[in-house]
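We keep the chain:
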Amino acid sequence: MTIEIYPEDEEIIQTKLARGRFRSIPELIHQALVSLPVPAVPENTTLPHWSTMRGMASGGQSLTQALMEERAADLARDQTRIQGS
C-alpha cells in the first residue's frame, strides 16, 4: 500500500522516530489509528432491527412491512415492561 502524506506530517513522523517513541512507521500509524476516538452512540438511540435493514435493502412494500413489524415488536416489549413494573 502506498500512502501519500503532507510534508509537515512526514516531519512529525521523522521526529517521533528519531526520538525513539516508535520503532517503525507502521507502528506509529497503528498507534495513531487506534487512538482515534470512536463516535459514541447516545444511550437512548436504538439501531434498526435487522428485518428493517433487510426491508430497506429491498425497498417498497417490504420496507413498510418491516417497519410496521418492528414497531409492533417495540410496543409489545413496552407493554411487557409496563405490566412487569
